[in-house]
Amino acid sequence: MERARRLYRLQELDLDEEKTRRRLAEVEEALGETERLRSARKAVEKATEAVRQWTVRQQDLELQVGALKKKIADSERRLYSGSVRNPKELSDLQAEVASLRRRLERREEELLEAMIGREEAEEAAQQAQEQLEAVEREWEAEQRALREEKDRLEAHLEEIAELRGTLLPSIPPGDLEVYRSLRQTKGGLAVARVVNGACVGCGMEVPSARLQAARGSELVFCGNCERVLLVEG
Question: Where are the extended beta strands (E) located within 80-148?
Fold first, then answer.
């Protein structure tokens, strides 16, 4: 029974190592930037670009409005200065002023829209920045936790290696060969405990004679699934 118990202990260590390595791989995969963080950063970039575009639009319209106002002022000065006396020229100048005022009205409407657009874009950019900062804080906390878990998992793997190193010399080479062969063919479970007279590996009842033999010094195998039987108590 002691030989089966050692193999069962080795199996526990091997299963623990496999589980730990799977989790370690998951942790290492999770380390680094997440898609949520990248998305939040892109949202800030997009919102910032929208602010820039609206700002450029506003500044351009402000220049156009300023130029139109100056042109209107210059034309009205000529119109009312008395320097233009020709009726046709006066009529053309009045028409020009009227046209400039219509253009000015349109540009001022567009400027108001641009100012509103810029204000809304700046608000959206601020919200995006606040969201990014919240995501970054959460991400940094998650990364710290993952790095701490990674350290614990790596330390546990070292502990498992030490325990295996202590256990392996006590297992006969023949038993170890049987164990490794069964691990490959039985889904990683080479040794099965017997609980309430049944093999845990397959659920089949173990005959009393086989149970008695399993309590001895030899390895005894389940007659159904062929795993090494461990009878305790």
Answer: none
